[in-house]
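Q: What structure does this chain adopt?
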Amino acid sequence: MMLVAAPALLLASACAGQPNPNTSVERDLAPARTASAPAASGTAGAPAAKPSTAAAPSAKPEERSAKPAGDRPKPGSGSLRLVADLSARQLHLYEGDELVKSYAVAIGSPKYPTPRGSYRIRKIVWNPAWIPPDSKWARKETPKGPGERDNPMKVAKIFFKEPDYYIHGTGDTESLGDAASHGCLRMAPNDVAEVGQYVMEHGGQPRDESWFRRIFRFRSQTKVIYLDNPVPITVTG
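A:
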């Protein structure tokens, strides 16, 4: 499967919130699943103060995260597993014992640590909305629809401990490598798009290139995918 790169974005950052009521759930493809571990509440990253625009093909070169096709991982025959190394601020993709690719991430701050443990990825939300959580830090924040310029949830949310902990795209790419979120794992937008496609392929919900191109083009439309085969992730370090 050729992985489709999300177009370059100028973005804001944050983590967590409530579900978007106006989502398209592809339940005909797989039933909803229950998370493998109880969820913690009131955690996730803080929104950045940087204003931004939505899709911006004319973004500055340094703000683009597109990668040449040869640099993207290609699904193989091995069993996929993810390892988030908090001490190294890295997310690793493995097929069996073979390292496929590593990505820079931002992790939870000391006040809002990312939970360590073994989990399973069962759900991915593409073009998510953001509704501020019921937490003190978010009291002055307002909901942001999918694709809105100040929506801190970029491209996708890959849940590993529902409902509050997930991997998501961020516009605050300068925070990558730091302990800066309210518990979630932040990635560059194009990186989270890559990982999401890879997880869907191995999780029994593959899509063709045209499906992903529609996702990246119509950012106001949310799609929820439930995996047939949950993908394991270990958070360590």
